[in-house]
Amino acid sequence: MIASRAFGWQNREVGAKLEVGAIYRVNAMTKPVIGTAVLLLSDDGSLHLDDPVSSYLKSFDTEALRSITIRQLLSNRSGLGGSTGSDSRLPKGFNAYPDLATLVEAIAAIPRDSLDHRFQYSNNNTAVLGHLVAQVSGISLEQFIAHRIFEPLGMIDSHTRFSPQAPWADKVVSTYALQPESCKHERVWSPADVQSAPYFRPSGGLYTTAHDYSRFLSMWLNEGRFDGQQFLKEATVKEALQPIGDRLIYNEGSAFGLHWTIYDPNSAQGMPSIFGQGGSNGTLAIAFPRTGKLVLYFSQSRNIYNRARFYQELGETEGFHEIRSIWAGEIRDAWREAIEAGRVPDEKLAMELVGNYSMGQHSSLRLEWRDDTLTFVTHRGDKGRFFTSPEGDLLTGNCEASIRRLSIERSDDGKIFALNGKMENGASFRLLRSD
Known about the structure:
Elements: E1 9-11, E2 16-17, E3 24-25, H1 31-44, H2 70-74, H3 100-108, H4 123-137, H5 141-153, E4 175-179, E5 184-189, E6 207-208, H6 210-221, E7 225-226, E8 229-230, H7 234-240, E9 255-256, E10 261-262, E11 275-279, E12 283-288, E13 293-298, E14 301-302, H8 304-315, H9 324-340, H10 347-353, E15 355-358, E16 364-370, E17 373-378, E18 383-388, E19 394-396, E20 403-410, E21 416-423, E22 428-433
Parallel strand pairs: 4-14
Antiparallel strand pairs: 1-2, 3-6, 4-5, 7-8, 9-10, 10-11, 11-12, 12-13, 15-16, 15-22, 16-17, 17-18, 18-19, 19-20, 20-21, 21-22
Helix pairs in contact: 1-4, 1-5, 3-4, 8-9
C-alpha cells in the first residue's frame, strides 16, 4: 500500500472526524463479493456456471424460468428485469420482505410472457445468486461469505448485518445526499438508524472499510492469488473479467463480466486494463492489472459528480490516464439519471430560453441547447447544465458554479424577457434578455 488518507467528517452533526478505518455502506460493491461466492462454489465443483438455476431452486422450475442459467445471472442477462430495488417489478420493495428466500420466491413469481436476455443491470440477479449460494453450500449466505471470503482474506472489519448496538457501530459513517436546490449535503442515514432490510441484501448490504476491500480486490488483481495461496483458480478469474456481449447502457465504453464492471471491453483475452465496481453511496474500487495498482475512493456522499470529479483528477495523474473514459461515462450517467427523473427542461422550453442575457456591461449569461441538454456559460467562465425544480425553476447541475437557481420571467405576451437568479452566497440578481 502506497498511501491511505482520510479527510472530512465521519459524522458532521456531532463533529466526528473521518478516520482511515471507518466502515462504509458500500451498496453495489457487495455484488462482486456475491459473484466471488458463486465462483468459489464453481471451483469446488459444487455447481457449474451453465447449470440451470432450476436445478437448485424449485421456484425457478417453471416454463418461464427453467432456461435461466447461473452464468446469465452473473452477467446480468437472465431476463429477470428490475434495475434497482425500487424498480424490480416486485409488488413491494426489497426491504419489505422478511428474508432472502421469500424475496427470491417473489422474484420468481413475477408474471413473464418471455425473457429478454439482453444486458440489464439488475438487483434481482444478485438476490437470486445470494440465495443460490445458501442452497448449494447448505449454510447461510452470511456464514459462507464470512468463512470462505472474509476470514481467509483477513477482512476483519467487514460485516453483513448492522444494528446501532453492534460493537463496531461507532466506526460506521453517516450517509449524505446532495440536495440540488441548496447544493448542500444533508444526512439521510446515520449509525443510530436500523438496517433498512431485515436480512443481508446481496445486491447492497455489505459494510466494510477501504482497507478490507483492497484485500479483496488485490486477490482479483493477482489472478486469484492471496498471501501465497490460490484463492480462486486463475482461469476462473480471467473468465470472470472478460466482457460479455454489448457495452453497458449506463457507462458507454464499458462492459460487464461476471459481476464485475470491465472498463475496456475491447481488450484482448486475459486480464483487462481496468476493472472494478462502485456503490451508490459514494464508494469506488478500481484495479489496473497492467500496472498492478489499486485505487479505492470511499466517500459517504450520494452524489455522482463527486465520483466523476475523482475520476477526472485521477485521470490527470501519471499512470492513470486510462481512467479518463470512465469519468466521461460517469458524467453521462448523472445526466441520464436526471432525464429519467424528469428533471431536464423539455426541448420546447429550452428553445425558448436559448440566447444571451446580461446585467450591465460586465455580467452575462448564455444558454445553449445541445444534445438534449440545456447548458450555460457565464462571463466568469462558469459552465454547467440546468435541471428543473418541481416549481419550474432552473437549478444548476454544477454545484461549484456561482449561479444556483434561475426563475423565468415572461412578458404579457408570454415571451421570456428576464431571468431572476440566486447566487451561491444567497445574493439575488436579474438578467435581461439581450438578443
